[in-house]
Amino acid sequence: MGYGNWDNNAFQAARTFRASRGLDDFGYTADMQGQEYSTWRAHPTLDPRDALRECRDSAEHANSLPIAVLFDVTGSMGTVPRIMQSKLGRLHGLLRHKGYADDPQIMFGGIGDADSDRVPLQVGQFESDNRMDEQLRNILLEGGGGGQKSESYELAAYFMVRHVVTDAWEKRGKKGYLFLIGDELNKPRLAASHVREVIGDRVSQDVAVASVYRELAARWHVFYVLPKQSSYYNDPEIAAHWATLLGERFLRLEDPGAVCELIALMVGVGEGRIDVSGGLADLRDVGSHAEAKAVRRALATRV
Amino acid sequence: MREHVIVVDLGFGDAGKGATVDWLCANGSVSAVVRFNGGAQAAHNVVADGRHHRFAQFGSGTFANVPTLLSRHMLVEPIALAAESVALARLGVPDPLRLLHIDGDALLTTPIHVAANRAREDARGAARHGSCGLGIGETAAYALDHRAPKVADCQDIRLLTRLLDDLAHHYAPLISDRVGSITELVGLYREFAAAVQIVGPDALASFATQGQLVFEGAQGVLLDEWRGLHPHTTWSTVEPRHARAMITALGDRPYVLGVTRTYLTRHGAGPFPTEDPALALPEPHNTFGEYQGTFRVGHFDPILLRYAIEACGGIDGLSVTHFDQHTGVQSATAYLTENGVIDAIHCGPWQDLAHQQHLTQLLTTARPVLEDFTPDTIATHLGVPVVLTAHGPDRAHRVPTALVGTAG
């Protein structure tokens, strides 16, 4: 019971107390599942419509580093979204514990299919404490998707370009980290109708996907993580699509439970705090042996 | 007038209080186990019906489904409490947190105290006090001079945040490199307050109307903050004065049940006259602790035990554990000391640490005079009836030899 890493201990304990009150880790999804599908909507704190998300410095956190994790919540992902929801709460503790980032601020969100889903995009706020955990619990796991092997990642990318401001960029010219976790292709084009309906911006023309990602890459280190246990883990078309857009920042992950560790390591490496082998040793250090192995393989099998 | 049982360890701890409490609770007459000292550092091993748990903050009556009341004399550590509730749930206790009632006046032990405790003990190097490294001493010490966070404060987020900020600020010179986020802590304590029943001073009386109370002490009397062998003591009143006071305030009568093994043990630094590393006695549940060091064993010692009984203001009965495990164990008849041969040590004025320091010095170099021993002579050695014996680790191995809770 060492408290060198008390954030994570506090998180686990809070979760135990919450569970004892019958509030499980997927409270909002459970609430929605009890209601008519036609009434499903994003939790108010995660609704992207007319929203602005900010990652700001404060007296306590003077060097804020934005990290956004948006995961696919459609049916093809299988149980992966639930795994994400239960594992990602550790991320902040892991980053802080190992000193990979001084003042990480983390935002979580969910990505669906704007052609067919009630709730195609959910984006939380950048947080540096337990409110992250609340965000995760409020993400609706709609489990939809249209069966056409594409989801609205490009809509999420657009939101990150136009509706997110960070002090890291504005004051220091420093990029944040964006992790997209999913298993399908982008839609063929960023549809103006999706932007209007979901986000509320008055956009009149569709936009090429590659151009959205070019704009995004100017301010964010963008990663795409394809976890096993999703539908298209071994599909070469998916790999080729994302590798073309992101190069070696397309990663396959054989154990979705290791997502937190993979993200922490990529941030640590990106921030120059650690090299890959040192990061893997750190993971084994905190007892994440299986996760270290999965992360090592994810990096070794880069396209 | 009801009689409530106080279970107190007459040695340095690890004698078998937990198992004794579990046995007392097993017959269904006990309405609550009341913890009256210590905190998360307690380690009371209970084996019942094939299940084993090391009780720390939950009362040892939990396997018997008896509620726990953590009294205002307790130091409460919610992170460890959560982990313990998970362990108990895995052992088949349904929703363990439902059994917990916590006095709002009890002090809160936080990771800040834990980090400070470890930083200080690390700095002592070889001169360690034998702390468990769980922040107990820091919790008590800080509360002497500051408005320390208490359990009830978890219901007032703004106040709690201020108190934790003050606490972190106070310890910053010692642990600034180990400090985590206060906001995380506040979030945790808010969940804690919502998950357990935080009660006021009336809770004890209300449990007393529903049945017998068992007061479960932590550690051993020889570690008592005022009667123990200073400075190798705990920041806690281990002898039963607080428990006696709570019972008499109810208008009821205390029955003090002292617990000892057929030999002595000590986990941590400090004098131990009858220590004998050659004693090969099985010890399944106590092992080397990073902050406490090795687990020590020694011969039966009526001199120390009679001192402990005196420190308790007398006791009514004895629960003797390890009745089946005493191979090679002898009994001390006297000590050879720098002041000559002595066969008794006595309490000085209460809270006289100079007296306690003197005893410590005397016992540090004392060498025991040993004689043959059988556990059947324990009642004679200590002048107290043996009312319960244990012939193995399980609840089923306990044998009542007289009616517990009936004087004489």
Chain pair sharing the greatest interface:
A-B, 24 and 29 residues
Which bin fits the share of residues in helices of chain A?
A: 40-55%
- Overall geometric form of chain B: globular
Q: For the largest beta sheet of chain A, what order do the strands appear in spatially?
A: 4-3-2-7-11-12
Q: How would you describe the oligomerization state of the chains in this entry? A: heterodimer
Low-confidence stretches of chain A: none
**Number of extended strands of chain A:** 12
Major sheet of chain B = 10 strands, mixed
Structural shape of chain A: globular
Descriptive report:
Chain A: It comes from Kutzneria chonburiensis. Chain A: This is VWA domain-containing protein. The complex is a heterodimer of chains A (303) and B (408). In chain A, 41% of the residues lie in helices and 17% in strands. The mean pLDDT of chain A is 88. Chain A has 303 residues and is α/β, with parallel strands linked by helices. Chain B is globular. The mean pLDDT of chain B is 91.
Topology record:
The complex is a heterodimer of chains A (303) and B (408).
Chain A (H helix, E strand, L loop, with lengths): L5 H15 L6 H7 L19 E3 L8 E9 L7 H8 L3 H7 L5 E9 L9 E3 L7 H8 L11 E2 L1 H10 L1 E3 H6 L3 E6 L3 E2 L2 E2 L1 H8 L7 E2 H11 E8 L8 H11 L3 E4 L5 H12 L5 H10 L3 H12 L3
Parallel strand pairs in A: 1-6, 2-3, 2-7, 5-8, 7-11, 11-12
Antiparallel strand pairs in A: 3-4, 9-10
Helix pairs in contact in A: 6-9, 11-12, 11-13, 12-13
Chain B lengths: L2 E7 L7 H9 L4 E6 L8 E5 L2 E5 L12 E3 L4 E2 L1 H13 L9 E4 L3 E2 L2 H14 L11 H10 L11 H19 L6 H14 L1 E3 L3 H6 L3 E9 L20 H9 L3 E9 L2 E4 L27 E4 L3 H10 L5 E5 L9 E7 L2 E3 L10 H12 L2 E5 L6 H5 L3 E5 L7 E3 L8
Helix pairs in contact in B: 3-4, 3-5, 5-6
Q: What keyword list fits this structure?
A:
heterodimer; A: 303 residues; alpha/beta; two-stranded parallel sheet; 12 strands; 41% helix; B: 408 residues; ten-stranded mixed sheet; three-stranded antiparallel sheet; globular; VWA domain-containing protein (chain A); metal-binding (chain B); ligase (chain B); GTP-binding (chain B); EC 6.3.4.4 (chain B)
